[in-house]
Amino acid sequence: MTSFSELFPSDPKIIKDITREGEIVTLRVQPNTDLYHSPTISATNAPELTTHVEHFQRASVTVSGNWTLLYDQGGIVLWLGKRWIKAGVEFVNGHANISSVATVDGHSDWALMPFEGQRVRIELARDEEGSGVWVGLIKEDGSNIALRHVTGFFDGKDTEVPSVGVYAARPKDGDDTPLTVKFEQWELHQSS
């Protein structure tokens, strides 16, 4: 699947502003939205466009935004029941970073990698054993840099159907200005 038309709001009450122009989707999200779990934070109100995919293999997207407030973010997300992985761009320490968060056992494990620019192509791909997920950065030449390996994401006991798509969030309440995140080049591959 290579069309954003196959992605739908996971919660239509949360997504207020979506623009679809051909194969480009723009989300404008309000402050106080996030997707994160810690002992003190439990937030799952980030606007998402997702689709169910029974035989997930890999998905990728190019993401860019007007990152200005701490923790402004957008990227790709994969759900399986209460487990999820998100990866993309997150604004921390005054600049955009490549970010990935894995939540497998109820709490989020967060990783950052600085990069130059405002735009990145990110991929989530099922590993060769089929139980883990690789998070990767796709460079302009098409090569892939492995950023993280989430083991045991697909544990074989799953009764839920995975869903995958794009998300954006503005966790901080700095002003009423929405965060604008643009998604391009969506690709989703399933096994047969």
Distance between the termini: 13 Å
Instruction: Tell me how many strands there are.
Output: 16
Number of helices: 0
- Low-pLDDT residue spans: none
Overall spatial form: globular
Second CATH tier, the architecture: Sandwich
Secondary structural class? mainly beta
Question: How many separate domains?
Answer: 1
* Major β-sheet annotation: 7 strands, antiparallel
CATH level 1 name: Mainly Beta
Mean pLDDT: 90
Helix content: under 10%
Query: How is the CATH topology named?
Result: Jelly Rolls
Q: If strands are numbered along the chain, what order do they take across the biggest sheet? A: 1-6-15-8-9-10-11
Strand content: over 45%
Helices and strands, in order, run as EEEEEEEEEEEEEEEE
Rg, rounded, reads 15 Å
Protein name: Beta-xylosidase C-terminal Concanavalin A-like domain-containing protein
InterPro entries: ConA-like_dom_sf (IPR013320), DUF1349 (IPR009784)
Pfam family, one: DUF1349
Organism: Planoprotostelium fungivorum
Describe the structure.
With 192 residues, the chain is mostly beta strands. It has a single domain (4-190), classed as Sandwich (Jelly Rolls), CATH 2.60.120.200. Helices cover 0% and strands 56% of the residues. It has no helices and 16 strands. It has strands at residues 8-9, 17-21, 24-29, 35-37, 42-44, 48-52, 56-65, 73-80, 83-92, 95-103, 108-114, 119-126, 133-138, 144-150, 163-169, 179-190. The strands form 3 sheets. Strands 1-6-15-8-9-10-11 form a 7-stranded antiparallel β-sheet, with no helix packed on it. Strands 2-3-16-7-12-13-14 form a 7-stranded antiparallel β-sheet, with no helix packed on it. It has a two-stranded antiparallel ribbon with strand order 4-5. The radius of gyration is 15 Å and the shape is globular.
